[in-house]
Amino acid sequence: MNEVLQTQILVQGMCCSKEAALIHTILGDVPGIASVKVNVVSRKAIVRHDPSRISVEAVVEKLNEAKLGATVQESGVAAEKVRFSLSPWAIALFAAECIAFLVAVAGFAKGWAPAKWVALGTAIVASYSLVRGAAIALVRRCTIDMNVLMLISVGGAAGYGFYVPRDAAKSWIDAALVVVLFNASEHIAAYASVAVSNALSDALSTAPSTATSRWGWSSRCGRGTACRLTASWSRGAPSSMRAR
Protein backbone atom coordinates (compact mmCIF):
# COMPACT_ATOMS: atom_id res chain seq x y z
CA MET A 1 0.00 0.00 0.00
CA ASN A 2 1.03 3.62 -0.54
CA GLU A 3 0.16 6.41 1.86
CA VAL A 4 -2.78 5.36 4.01
CA LEU A 5 -5.54 7.89 4.45
CA GLN A 6 -7.84 7.78 7.47
CA THR A 7 -11.41 8.93 6.87
CA GLN A 8 -14.03 9.44 9.55
CA ILE A 9 -17.55 8.82 8.27
CA LEU A 10 -20.81 9.65 10.01
CA VAL A 11 -23.33 6.83 9.41
CA GLN A 12 -26.78 8.15 10.26
CA GLY A 13 -28.41 4.80 9.47
CA MET A 14 -26.39 2.91 12.09
CA CYS A 15 -28.33 2.25 15.28
CA CYS A 16 -27.15 -1.13 16.56
CA SER A 17 -24.49 -3.81 16.16
CA LYS A 18 -26.28 -5.24 13.12
CA GLU A 19 -25.42 -2.14 11.07
CA ALA A 20 -21.84 -2.29 12.38
CA ALA A 21 -21.53 -5.85 11.08
CA LEU A 22 -23.05 -4.73 7.77
CA ILE A 23 -20.42 -2.00 7.40
CA HIS A 24 -17.63 -4.53 8.01
CA THR A 25 -19.21 -6.83 5.43
CA ILE A 26 -19.48 -4.08 2.80
CA LEU A 27 -15.96 -2.68 3.24
CA GLY A 28 -14.06 -5.68 4.57
CA ASP A 29 -12.96 -7.18 1.25
CA VAL A 30 -12.75 -4.00 -0.82
CA PRO A 31 -9.30 -3.62 -2.45
CA GLY A 32 -7.42 -0.66 -1.04
CA ILE A 33 -9.08 -0.66 2.39
CA ALA A 34 -6.67 -1.53 5.21
CA SER A 35 -9.01 -1.47 8.20
CA VAL A 36 -12.48 -0.48 9.33
CA LYS A 37 -13.43 0.55 12.87
CA VAL A 38 -17.00 1.24 13.92
CA ASN A 39 -18.45 3.05 16.93
CA VAL A 40 -22.16 2.30 17.17
CA VAL A 41 -22.88 4.82 19.91
CA SER A 42 -21.45 7.82 18.04
CA ARG A 43 -22.56 6.34 14.67
CA LYS A 44 -19.09 6.75 13.21
CA ALA A 45 -16.90 4.56 11.01
CA ILE A 46 -13.16 5.15 10.69
CA VAL A 47 -11.79 3.74 7.45
CA ARG A 48 -8.07 3.49 6.65
CA HIS A 49 -7.58 3.18 2.92
CA ASP A 50 -5.19 3.79 0.05
CA PRO A 51 -6.57 6.85 -1.83
CA SER A 52 -4.80 5.76 -5.01
CA ARG A 53 -6.91 2.58 -5.09
CA ILE A 54 -10.21 3.72 -3.59
CA SER A 55 -11.32 7.30 -3.02
CA VAL A 56 -13.23 8.72 -0.08
CA GLU A 57 -16.25 9.26 -2.34
CA ALA A 58 -16.18 5.60 -3.41
CA VAL A 59 -16.16 4.43 0.22
CA VAL A 60 -19.16 6.63 1.06
CA GLU A 61 -20.97 5.50 -2.09
CA LYS A 62 -20.59 1.83 -1.13
CA LEU A 63 -22.14 2.53 2.27
CA ASN A 64 -24.98 4.55 0.79
CA GLU A 65 -25.80 1.73 -1.62
CA ALA A 66 -27.02 -0.05 1.52
CA LYS A 67 -29.01 3.11 2.44
CA LEU A 68 -26.90 3.81 5.53
CA GLY A 69 -26.92 7.60 5.13
CA ALA A 70 -23.12 8.00 5.20
CA THR A 71 -21.37 11.37 4.98
CA VAL A 72 -17.70 12.32 5.40
CA GLN A 73 -16.83 14.10 8.65
CA GLU A 74 -13.10 14.47 8.27
CA SER A 75 -10.26 12.96 6.31
CA GLY A 76 -6.55 12.93 7.09
CA VAL A 77 -3.42 10.82 7.42
CA ALA A 78 -3.14 10.53 11.18
CA ALA A 79 -4.30 7.18 12.51
CA GLU A 80 -5.87 7.13 15.95
CA LYS A 81 -7.68 4.50 17.93
CA VAL A 82 -11.44 4.56 18.08
CA ARG A 83 -12.59 5.74 21.49
CA PHE A 84 -15.79 4.62 23.14
CA SER A 85 -17.74 7.64 24.29
CA LEU A 86 -21.29 8.55 25.26
CA SER A 87 -22.67 12.05 25.02
CA PRO A 88 -23.72 13.70 28.30
CA TRP A 89 -27.29 13.61 27.04
CA ALA A 90 -27.15 9.85 26.43
CA ILE A 91 -25.60 9.22 29.86
CA ALA A 92 -28.21 11.37 31.61
CA LEU A 93 -31.08 9.75 29.74
CA PHE A 94 -29.92 6.19 30.47
CA ALA A 95 -29.37 7.04 34.15
CA ALA A 96 -32.87 8.53 34.32
CA GLU A 97 -34.31 5.38 32.72
CA CYS A 98 -32.66 3.15 35.32
CA ILE A 99 -33.72 5.36 38.24
CA ALA A 100 -37.31 5.60 37.02
CA PHE A 101 -37.48 1.84 36.56
CA LEU A 102 -36.20 1.21 40.10
CA VAL A 103 -38.71 3.73 41.46
CA ALA A 104 -41.53 1.91 39.63
CA VAL A 105 -40.45 -1.48 40.97
CA ALA A 106 -40.08 -0.19 44.54
CA GLY A 107 -43.42 1.58 44.32
CA PHE A 108 -45.15 -1.51 43.01
CA ALA A 109 -43.69 -3.61 45.83
CA LYS A 110 -45.06 -1.13 48.40
CA GLY A 111 -48.45 -0.86 46.75
CA TRP A 112 -47.96 2.68 45.44
CA ALA A 113 -50.70 3.20 42.83
CA PRO A 114 -48.85 5.65 40.53
CA ALA A 115 -45.98 3.16 40.17
CA LYS A 116 -47.58 1.62 37.09
CA TRP A 117 -47.68 5.00 35.37
CA VAL A 118 -44.03 5.57 36.19
CA ALA A 119 -43.27 2.20 34.60
CA LEU A 120 -45.30 3.06 31.50
CA GLY A 121 -43.59 6.44 31.17
CA THR A 122 -40.19 4.77 31.51
CA ALA A 123 -41.04 2.26 28.78
CA ILE A 124 -42.19 5.02 26.43
CA VAL A 125 -39.25 7.39 26.99
CA ALA A 126 -36.66 4.60 26.93
CA SER A 127 -38.01 3.36 23.60
CA TYR A 128 -36.60 6.35 21.71
CA SER A 129 -33.72 4.31 20.26
CA LEU A 130 -36.05 1.44 19.36
CA VAL A 131 -38.42 3.75 17.51
CA ARG A 132 -35.55 5.39 15.63
CA GLY A 133 -33.93 2.07 14.74
CA ALA A 134 -37.22 0.53 13.66
CA ALA A 135 -38.02 3.54 11.47
CA ILE A 136 -34.64 3.30 9.75
CA ALA A 137 -35.05 -0.44 9.19
CA LEU A 138 -38.58 -0.20 7.81
CA VAL A 139 -38.36 3.04 5.81
CA ARG A 140 -34.77 3.14 4.56
CA ARG A 141 -33.89 -0.55 4.22
CA CYS A 142 -37.36 -2.11 4.00
CA THR A 143 -36.40 -4.88 6.40
CA ILE A 144 -37.32 -6.18 9.85
CA ASP A 145 -34.49 -6.14 12.36
CA MET A 146 -34.09 -6.51 16.13
CA ASN A 147 -35.34 -2.97 16.75
CA VAL A 148 -38.64 -3.74 15.04
CA LEU A 149 -39.10 -6.99 16.95
CA MET A 150 -38.27 -5.39 20.28
CA LEU A 151 -40.64 -2.50 19.60
CA ILE A 152 -43.45 -4.96 18.85
CA SER A 153 -42.69 -6.78 22.10
CA VAL A 154 -42.72 -3.61 24.18
CA GLY A 155 -45.83 -2.32 22.44
CA GLY A 156 -47.59 -5.62 23.06
CA ALA A 157 -46.77 -5.54 26.77
CA ALA A 158 -47.95 -1.93 27.06
CA GLY A 159 -51.14 -2.68 25.12
CA TYR A 160 -51.91 -5.70 27.28
CA GLY A 161 -51.83 -3.45 30.34
CA PHE A 162 -54.60 -1.31 28.85
CA TYR A 163 -56.58 -4.36 27.75
CA VAL A 164 -56.37 -6.04 31.18
CA PRO A 165 -56.23 -3.18 33.72
CA ARG A 166 -55.74 -5.46 36.72
CA ASP A 167 -52.42 -6.62 35.26
CA ALA A 168 -51.36 -3.18 34.04
CA ALA A 169 -48.66 -2.64 36.68
CA LYS A 170 -46.90 -5.95 36.03
CA SER A 171 -47.22 -5.63 32.27
CA TRP A 172 -45.84 -2.10 32.15
CA ILE A 173 -42.98 -2.94 34.50
CA ASP A 174 -42.10 -5.84 32.17
CA ALA A 175 -42.15 -3.46 29.20
CA ALA A 176 -39.88 -0.99 30.99
CA LEU A 177 -37.48 -3.79 32.02
CA VAL A 178 -37.19 -5.03 28.43
CA VAL A 179 -36.36 -1.57 27.08
CA VAL A 180 -33.86 -0.69 29.82
CA LEU A 181 -32.02 -4.01 29.41
CA PHE A 182 -31.99 -3.62 25.63
CA ASN A 183 -30.45 -0.14 25.88
CA ALA A 184 -27.86 -1.42 28.35
CA SER A 185 -26.95 -4.29 26.03
CA GLU A 186 -26.51 -1.86 23.12
CA HIS A 187 -24.02 0.24 25.13
CA ILE A 188 -22.12 -2.88 26.22
CA ALA A 189 -22.03 -4.21 22.65
CA ALA A 190 -20.73 -0.87 21.36
CA TYR A 191 -17.95 -0.82 23.97
CA ALA A 192 -16.98 -4.43 23.17
CA SER A 193 -16.96 -3.69 19.44
CA VAL A 194 -14.55 -0.76 19.91
CA ALA A 195 -12.29 -2.76 22.23
CA VAL A 196 -12.08 -5.74 19.85
CA SER A 197 -11.53 -3.49 16.83
CA ASN A 198 -8.63 -1.69 18.52
CA ALA A 199 -7.11 -4.98 19.68
CA LEU A 200 -7.24 -6.45 16.17
CA SER A 201 -5.74 -3.27 14.72
CA ASP A 202 -2.85 -3.44 17.19
CA ALA A 203 -2.28 -7.10 16.34
CA LEU A 204 -2.25 -6.44 12.59
CA SER A 205 0.11 -3.49 12.98
CA THR A 206 2.82 -5.88 14.23
CA ALA A 207 2.70 -8.02 11.08
CA PRO A 208 6.09 -8.31 9.30
CA SER A 209 6.50 -6.53 5.99
CA THR A 210 8.20 -9.54 4.34
CA ALA A 211 7.96 -13.28 5.00
CA THR A 212 9.83 -16.14 3.29
CA SER A 213 8.54 -19.70 3.53
CA ARG A 214 10.67 -22.82 3.83
CA TRP A 215 10.17 -23.41 0.07
CA GLY A 216 11.40 -19.96 -0.82
CA TRP A 217 8.06 -18.36 -1.61
CA SER A 218 8.32 -14.68 -0.75
CA SER A 219 5.48 -12.52 0.51
CA ARG A 220 5.50 -8.75 0.85
CA CYS A 221 2.55 -6.92 2.31
CA GLY A 222 1.50 -3.54 3.58
CA ARG A 223 1.51 -2.87 7.29
CA GLY A 224 -1.72 -3.91 8.94
CA THR A 225 -2.96 -5.90 5.94
CA ALA A 226 -3.10 -9.56 5.03
CA CYS A 227 -0.04 -10.83 3.17
CA ARG A 228 -0.34 -12.44 -0.26
CA LEU A 229 2.21 -14.96 -1.52
CA THR A 230 3.97 -14.12 -4.78
CA ALA A 231 5.49 -16.62 -7.18
CA SER A 232 9.06 -15.37 -6.80
CA TRP A 233 11.58 -18.10 -5.95
CA SER A 234 14.26 -17.07 -3.47
CA ARG A 235 17.43 -19.09 -3.91
CA GLY A 236 19.18 -20.14 -0.77
CA ALA A 237 16.11 -19.60 1.36
CA PRO A 238 16.35 -21.05 4.87
CA SER A 239 14.60 -24.32 5.62
CA SER A 240 12.22 -22.67 8.08
CA MET A 241 10.03 -19.64 7.62
CA ARG A 242 11.47 -16.35 8.75
CA ALA A 243 9.94 -12.89 8.93
CA ARG A 244 11.59 -9.53 8.97
Q: Which features characterize this protein?
A:
alpha+beta; 244 residues; Alpha-Beta Plaits; 50% helix
Describe what this molecule looks like in 3D:
- This protein has 244 residues and is α+β, with helices and mostly antiparallel strands.
- It has three domains: 79 residues, Alpha-Beta Plaits; 103 residues, no CATH class; 34 residues, no CATH class.
- Helices cover 50% and strands 17% of the residues.
- It is built from seven helices and eight strands; from the N terminus they run E-H-E-E-H-E-H-H-H-H-H-E-E-E-E.
- Strand 2 and strand 3 form a beta hairpin.
- Helix 4 runs parallel beside helix 7.
- The longest helix is centred in the C-terminal third of the chain and has 38 residues.
Give a summary of the structure in a few sentences.
The chain is α+β, with helices and mostly antiparallel strands and 244 residues long. The protein has helices at residues 17-27, 56-64, 88-109, 115-126, 128-140, 146-163, 168-205; strands spanning 5-11, 33-39, 44-49, 70-76, 210-212, 217-220, 229-233, 242-243.
> Which ranges are low-confidence, i.e. pLDDT below 50, for 5 or more consecutive residues?
218-244
Mean pLDDT: 78
Strand order within the widest beta sheet: 2-3-1-4
Number of strands: 8
Structural class: alpha+beta
**Major pleated sheet:** 4 strands, antiparallel
**Overall helicity:** 40-55%
SSE order, one letter for each helix or strand: EHEEHEHHHHHEEEE
> What is the straight-line distance between the termini?
17 Å
* Strand coverage percent: 15-25%
Multimerization state: single chain
